[in-house]
Amino acid sequence: MLTHPTHDRLLALGLTGIASALEEQRRSTVFDDLSFEERLGLLVDREAAERDAKKLASRLKFAALRQDASADLQGFGISTFAHPAALTAVSWRILPMALGSRGMRTC
Questions:
Q1: Which H/E stretch holds residue 35?
Q2: Highest-pLDDT range among 29-38, 67-76, 88-97
Q3: Distance (Å, whole) CA 56 – CA 51
Q4: Is 88 helix (H, G, I), strand (E, B) or coil?
Q5: In the Cβ-directed half-sphere of 77, how many Cα atoms lie within 13 Å?
Q6: CA–CA separation, 23 and 74 (whole Å)
Q7: Handedness of CA 33, 35, 38, 44 (dihedral sign)
Q8: Rounded to the nearest 10 degrees, what angle do helices 89-101 and 67-75 cross at?
Q9: What is the pLDDT of residue 48?
Q10: Which whole-number Å values give the CA distances from 16 to 19, 23, 91, 105, in the listed order?
Q11: Can you tell me whether residue 22 is helix, strand or coil?
């Protein structure tokens, strides 16, 4: 099998995941004991994983999420907010539930 034309063709077809996984399989002896179907399955899995990662990165970039708000809501705390007015309506609804679950009294 001619490696360079195959690799170049995979890249031209937009199959970068398969191309990189194929190069890894060629360099490593770990894959020698696997059948053709198993190796092909690994190549397809790599391509699918890379496409999913690209889709997720694109969606996160398009969503333009604010890092401060998402990090603060995960902990149910208010320590990172500079001012109480910065709390969103969702935060005001979540805060009493979070404080109640920690055994704290709410007003």
A1: none
A2: 29-38
A3: 9
A4: coil
A5: 7
A6: 40
A7: positive
A8: 20
A9: 93
A10: 5, 11, 42, 55
A11: helix
Angle at 53 between CA 91 and CA 51, to 5 degrees: 140
Residues in the chain: 107
3-state SS of the chain: helix, strand, coil percent to 5? Answer: 75, 0, 25
Q: How many CA atoms lie within 13 A of 12 on its CB side?
A: 6
Token digits for 49? 């994983």
d(CA 40, CA 22): 9
**Which residue type occupies 105?**
R
pTM for the model:
0.56
The residue type found at 91 is S
Of 23, 75, 13, 64, give the one whose Cα is nearest residue 46.
Answer: 23
